[in-house]
Structure formats: C-alpha cells, structure tokens
Amino acid sequence: MKKNILWLRERVLSVSIRIKVMGIALGIVFLFALTIIFQIRESFEKELREELKTSGIFIAKEMTSRSSGFILTPNQFALNLLIKNIFENNENVEYAFILSSSNEILVHSFENGFPKELLAVNRVSPGSKFRVEMLDTEEGIITDVAVPLFGGKLGTVRVGMNEKHLRNKLNAITLQILIVTAIVSLLSIGAASLLTIVLTRPITNLVSFVNALGKGDFEQRARIWADDEIGKLSNAFNDMIQKLKNFKTELEFKEEMTSQLLKKVINAQEEERKRIARELHDQTSQSLTSLMIGLKILKSAKTLDEVTKRSDDLRELTSKTLEEVHDLAIQLRPTVLDDIGLDIALQKYVADYSMKFNIKVDYHSIGFDSFRLPTEIEIVIYRVVQEALANILKHSEARNACLLLENRGNLLKVIVEDNGKGFDVRKVMSSEIDGKLGLFGMQERINLISGDITIESTPGNGTNIYITVPIDKKLSYEKDKNTFS
Ligand SMILES: Nc1ncnc2c1ncn2[C@@H]1O[C@H](COP(=O)(O)OP(=O)(O)OP(=O)(O)O)[C@@H](O)[C@H]1O
Ligand SMILES: [Mg+2]
After folding, report:
1. Cβ partners under 8 Å of residue 170, min gap 6
2. Where does residue 451 rank: exposed (0-12), middle (13-18), buried (19+ CB within 10 A)?
3. Which residue CA neighbors atom 19 of ligand 1 most closely?
4. Do 97 and 83 touch, CB atoms closer than 8 A?
5. Is the shortest distance between the CB of 476 and ligand 1 below 6 Å?
6. Is residue 484 pLDDT above 50, yes or no?
7. Is the CB of 443 under 6 A from ligand 1?
C-alpha cells in the first residue's frame, strides 16, 4: 500500500508543471460543480417533495369540500366530472379516487381499472385530518394523501401525487449546471494553459541557460521576464555567472603566472649554475693553480728568507681563495639564516643593502629575543623582503625605506615601506607582462605559508607592503637550544 502511494506520488510529481496546473484547475472546477449539483439536488428534492405533499393535501381537501354534496345527493355524473377536472388541471396528480365509509369505490380516475392494492395502504383514522404515505410504485415514488370526508362518516378522498414532472425539472437544472461546468472547464483549460505558458516559459529559458552554463558558456545571460520570483532567480544566476567568469579569468591568469614563474625559476637555476661554474673556473681554479705554482716555487727556494716570504704569499693567497669559496657558499644559500635567525640575518642584509645602494632603510624588530620562527617561514620572509628591497632599488627611486618585523607569538607582521614614486597596483597585478613576476612570486610564497599580503601603492605616494603570517607556536623553538617550545 505504502509502495503504491509512493509510486503514485512519484508519477504525479514527475508530470510537467503545465499538466499539474491544468489538473489542479480542472479538479477545482469539477469539485466545485459536483458539490453545487449535489447541494442543489438535495435541497431542491426536499423542497419539491414538501411542495408536492402540500399541494396533494390541498387538492384532496378541495375534493372533500366539493364532493360531499354529490355523495349525499348522490350524483355520480358530477363526481366523475370533478375527478376529471382535478386530473386535467393538475399535472402532478397521478390518480384520485373517493371511497365510501364502507370502503367501496365511489369514483376513480384509473382508465384501466382500479388497482385493488391501493385500498390496503394509507388508511386514515377517522379522527385525523389527513394522512400521507409514500408509495414505491412502477410509476415511481407516489405521495399518497388521504383526507376523511366528514370525519370519515362519508368516506375518504385519496389523491396520488407523482414526482415525475418535478424530477424532470430537477434533471433539467442539473443538465444546465453540467453545461455551465463544461463551459467553465474549457475556459479554465484555456486560462491554465495561458498561466502555465507565462509561468513555464521563463523556467524553460532558465533551464537552457543553465545547460549552456554547464557546457562552459560563460557569455550567456538569463533573460529577465519580470521582476517576480523567477526574475529575481534569473538575476541571481546572472550575478553568479559574472562571479564565475571573473573567477575563471583570475584562475587562468594565475595559472599563466605560475607557469611563467616556474620557467623563470628554472632559468634562474640554470643561470646560477653557469655563474658558479664560471666563478669556480675563473677565480677558484685560478687561485688554486697559483697556489700550486707557488708551492712548486717554494720547493725550489734556496734561502730561509725566501721560504718565509713565499709561504707568507701562499698564506695570503689561500686566505683569499677561502674567502671566495665562502662568498660563493653564502650567495648559494644565506647560511646566516640557519645560523643566526631571520631577525639578525635581515638586519645584516639591510645594513649591507643601505651601504651598497645608498638607500636609508630603518629596521625595527619586536618579539625575536627568545624564540626562532619555523624554518620555512624564515626562508619565505627573507626572500620576500629581498624581492621588496630589490623592487625599491629597481623601480621606486626612493631614498628612504622602512622594514618592520613584529613577532607576537602566534602572528608575524612584516611591513616594508618606501617613499618612492609608487605604482598602480591593480594595473600591474592584472597585466600579463612577461618577466614581471616578483610581486606574483611574493604572493605565491606568502600563500604557501598560509599568510596574507596586501600591496598598497599609488603613483607619487610610495609603496607599502603588509604581510601577516599565522605562527604555529609549537613549531617555534627557543634560541640557542634547538629544542621545540
Ligand atoms: N617599490 C616599488 N616602487 C615602484 N614601483 C614598483 C615597486 N615595486 C614594484 N613596482 C612596479 O611593479 C612592477 C612589477 O614588479 P615585479 O617585482 O613583479 O616585477 P619586476 O621587478 O619588474 O621584475 P622581476 O620579475 O625581476 O621582479 C614593476 O615593474 C614596477 O613597475
Ligand atoms: Mg621585482
């Protein structure tokens, strides 16, 4: 049973909106019409029966007053005429007859003989004014009225009222209502079709729009038919598609930048290898060759003075070579970062930078006294600050800059400011210009450590870079001890 109900529910819900609306409209019209027909028939039938009964009593009483004289006389002809009169003037009278006090038939309206069984029914007691009995006959339901003549002393008048004519009237009314219902149904089918067209057209439109969207067509826009709920839905769809389109463009831009960045990193690695090879070849191996030649000469030295002088030269050459190798190692990886931590490493880098390029950089740091940051965060911040300072040097024409580092334990803040010529951030960040990947690389690096970076700059007003990075305190460790806090 439950299964059947579920099946039916599924079938009903899966039909189109058009059929649903029409079904509802027709259902309402039919229900309404059936209720009206039922109500009208019920009350009409009751009223008609009552009316039939009243007129039956009236006719019977009339017959008593008009017939009593003819019975007493007696005048059979007049009685026959009376019955004929009654019969002709009342279409609802099925039969009429008068019985004597001894229950003999004095006069009757039956053409084909009097049906005897009528004598046995509806017998009125002499004291009562009338008696009504409903008889179920071949002619239909008959309302049989019996009225005693002079309290029953003269006999009884009986009149049978047939509801045939009244029922025909009732059927005619029902037919009328049915015709009206059919007309209203046709009209409601028309109205429902119109309504469903108005309702479903925007929805059908939305469906094809969403299908196109599903195939990746972000150029389409949902048509707005009216400012109703569907119109609002279409509006929301259009907003969504615009956002999706922006998101897609942004994603494609980022992908392009990432691939460029990757190329740049690979090129840079290659360049760096070449440079180191050159450096090793041109400097270190030259120095080592000089050292070898020096040692050969030392071997052939004749006096102690000459040995001392040559060995001093060789010591100087060795120390120079050592310095070169050391410089090379530092350039490859800032070992200061591993050894002394971000704060001091940046302090040294900034001092060196200021001296070399004649740009005054104010350096402030807070919260680095007792704890070191996780290594990957230190490397990222070091590289990002290097790029920011490189940009100040390359593009800003600034004379002053400021670098601020604040470690609050669970949040690291870095601010790099310059008073240079500034630039249009939005324009630069949205343009795909080859080779300009510093700012994008900064963002990527900061994103890698779940941080946030904001670049604020307007032409003529310098540039400010704000960075915040959440710090997992468990990964920070105490200075000098190498143990995790
Ligand atoms: N501090 C600054 N002051 C003024 N302009 C800047 C500054 N930083 C960046 N810019 C502008 O933003 C552009 C993009 O910088 P970005 O670092 O991405 O590329 P780049 O420095 O030109 O090249 P690279 O990829 O070598 O870093 C620069 O070309 C410059 O016009
Ligand atoms: Mg740059």
Report:
1. 41, 44, 45, 48
2. buried
3. 436
4. yes
5. no
6. no
7. no
- Ligand 1 contacts CB of residue 428 (under 6 A): yes
User: What angle separates helix 229-279 from helix 164-214, to the nearest 10 degrees?
Assistant: 10
Would the CB of 436 count as within 6 Å of ligand 1? yes
What CATH number does the domain located at 335-478 have?
Answer: 3.30.565.10
Would you state the pLDDT for residue 333? 65
Would you tell me how many other CB atoms lie within 10 Å of the CB of residue 253?
15
Pocket flag, ligand 1, residue 56 (CB < 6 Å): no
Taking residues 343-369, report their average pLDDT: 93
Rounded to the nearest 5°, which phi and psi values hold at 139? Answer: -85, 0
CA 441 to ligand 2 centroid distance, Å: 9
14-178 and 335-478: identical CATH topology: no
The answer, yes or no, to whether any atom of ligand 1 lies below 6 A from the CB of 392, is yes
pLDDT given at position 5: 84
CATH classification for the domain delimited by 14-178, as one of 3.30.450.20, 3.30.465.10, 3.40.50.980, 3.40.50.10540: 3.30.450.20
Amino acid in position 53: K
The residue type of 458 is: T
| Mean pLDDT for the stretch of residues 295-306 | 87
Domain ranges, ordered by start, for the chain:
14-178, 335-478
Ligand 1 atom nearest to CA at 441: 18
Q: Rounded mean pLDDT of the chain?
A: 86
Q: Is 391 in the pocket of ligand 1 (CB under 6 A)?
A: yes
List the beta bridge partners of residue 412.
407, 469
φ and ψ of 431, to 5 deg: -95, 145
The pLDDT, as a whole number, for residue 420 is: 95
CA pair distance 157, 351, nearest whole angstrom:
139
- State the distance from the centre of ligand 1 to the C-alpha of 398, rounded, in angstroms: 13
The Å distance, Cα 391 to ligand 1 centre, comes to 5
17's tokens: 């909106």
